[in-house]
Specification:
Layout lengths: L2 H11 L1 H39 L3 E5 L7 H9 L4 E9 L3 E6 L26 E3 H8 L3 E8 L12 E5 L7 H36 L1 H9 L4 H46 L12 H16 L6 H6 L8 H15 L3 H33 L3 H16 L1 H35 L4 E4 L6 H10 L1 H6 L2 E12 L5 E11 L12 E2 L3 H6 L4 E4 H7 L6 E6 L2 E11 L8 E5 L11 E6 L6 H12 L6 E3 H15 L1 H28 L1 H9 L4 H43 L9 H27 L17
Parallel strand pairs: 3-4, 9-14, 11-13
Antiparallel strand pairs: 1-5, 1-6, 2-3, 2-5, 7-15, 7-16, 8-9, 8-12, 8-15, 10-13, 11-14, 12-13
Helix pairs in contact: 1-2, 2-5, 2-7, 2-8, 2-20, 5-8, 5-13, 5-20, 5-22, 7-8, 7-19, 10-11, 11-12, 11-13, 11-22, 12-22, 13-19, 13-20, 13-22, 20-23, 22-23
Amino acid sequence: MTLPAALFSHYRRHPLQLLALGAMIVLATMLWTGVHHLTSQARASLEQSESAVAGRQQVKRKDGERVTVEDFVKLRRRGLCVMPWLEVTSPETGRVVGVDPLAAGCFGNPDREESPWRGELDGRPFVDISDAAELARRQRSELSLLVSDAQDAGDLPSGYQLAPFRVGPDTGELGDSFLLNLDALGVLVLLITALLVRSVYLLGLAQRRDSFALLHRFGVPRRRINRLLAIEIMVLALVCIMPGIWLGRWLATGLGSGFGRALEGLFDQPLYAGRDGGWLMPLATMLAVVLVACLADLLRPLAQRLSGDARWVGGFPVLVLMAGIAVSIWASALVWLFVALAMVFVSAGTLAPMLISRLADGWAGRDTDPLSRWRHRELSVLARRLALPLVALQFAMAMVLAVQALVTTFESTFDRWLAQRLEAEYYIEVPEAVDTGLALDWLSEQPELASSGLWHRVVRGEATLMGAAGEPGPVVDVFALGPVGPLVTGWQLFESTAQPWRALQQGQGLMVNEQLARRQGVTAGQLLKVKLGSQVLNFPVLAIYPDYGRPAGEILVNAAVLPPDFIPGFQSLSVSPGTLDIEAISQQLKQIWRVEELTVRDNRAIAELASAIFDQTFVFTRAMTALTLILAAIALLMMGWVFFSTRAWYFRLLVVWGLSRRQASAQLTRLAVSLTSAIALLALPLGVWLTWALVHRINPLAFGWSLPMVVYPRFWLELGVLSLLVGLSIALLMRRQLKTPALAPESTSALAGGER
């Protein structure tokens, strides 16, 4: 028999251990590869979108009208380098951008050999402008005219001006924060995986120590054994990582549509076809994780490695824990917040087995019942020997508890916010170039609507915040309502002055959304200078309201305060007709506006669709947390069973001392349940703290909005039931060990090749 075959014979005797080790590597690779695949696409999408229009300018008409094909022809005939950019929004295909490669030819830099936008405009959502024009006949569209950097304002004919061009709100920091959160979740999965793989691998080394000692006595140097062990784990990792990468890419492909909707909904950026993360990065990352987890202390003495009793001197973990909590409270940047999270997790993982062990020893010292004293002493030993899988299960439980609470809170908050925004039963789109005044007069004359007040007009547009010295500041969205009635007065407000809705009805101020308030430091009662059209107006901030949509700044005003030269980008009517027939209302509006078609949407159907899309965005997160928890529970189950098996000889002494097999089994059941319940109890405060960090610290810094801190005891009960099931499963398997003969424990001198 060759030396590699002799070493690998351990897994022939313990095939389930090899299967468990391989399954952990495959599942961990699948989860992390899925995250990496999606985040790579999202990062490429943000970079691609920004690089495609970075620093670009567009031509706009000074009269406020939208540019048309005739404007493009006129500017091109004047010798200006202008390219059309046609955006079409379709429910079936999402956002489509039509570009003209021929018109873009003049954008080339003479100092470069590359064509302009060679890589940025390849693949979805970019299509030829002729295809986009076909879609624009049936869907909403917006044409922009991008101008070359070589042109300046003096080159433009009269009636035109230059303006910055952007495809959506400024999402640089927010997009990075969003992706950083996903990366942090992937790192946490890697950490739990490393703990589990290391625990199973060290268990195998503990079972193989006699064979190592025997090979050493036969003349095999320890260095050669270590080299073969390194080759063994590397081959196993390569065999398991490749299918894990394939499964991860398949998982990412299946969840990509929901993730893409989340990306576009949060940041107004589509998930472009582009980089997919490749194979090399997941392969190198998972290979490094497995090798470091299994071979990090290869040069340390084997006895020290297997003792599992790495006691910290002094209260250093406590100091790290307190420092991590303090940093998480006062950190103002996501990077430092994630450092604080790492400090808390590392210190909590270090303290958990130590705390269980010391509490068990303390109970054993005070207990007068010999059987209880034995059980507590054995619990102390198990907490030290099973430290790694216990900590992994603690981390997984805390992560699941926090993510479940976050998702549930977000769902309930989103549902309430969506119900407020879609309070009206129907949404009617106002056609372009029609007189809305006639329709407003007709609606106000209807007795049912006049008595209920369940209708209003919505005007969308843009405004500019002005600085203290009169310089223009950021451009924000305008959300104008008129009349201000019961459809909006029930909105939740984070901060407000006295009677804010009455003041808004009278046009005596404005409200701002949470994103604008956080980024500009706006508070209720503050005076805000806003440029609407050509007028600069001073408004007091009446309230700050939540807005869980795009991270764009928005102001809410009464439509009556809009100046005559304000150019609306979009108008609509929100109506709850009550006893009136919506068909009759739409027919009357068609006659008033003299149009043949009118877009009328049922807001209840829109709410259901939005909720369905929102639920899909969290499928990936739920799948990751659930699979990680299952992985940790199975690892602890297997580790506990195998470790209990190594101590079966001691447990059989319970029968020798006079206990029946049923009584001995009951003691083992109490022991296993006590161990898993203790780690579940220690996971609760960590999970609650992580929930607080997610909703009150990470979420506002990353996305610009806050969520209420809600604790769900039902999730605690679920984790308790899971820990109980794991403990009972270990105890059930241990009953088999009591029925089979067990060898006497071996001498510790076997580690050095000594006699038994």
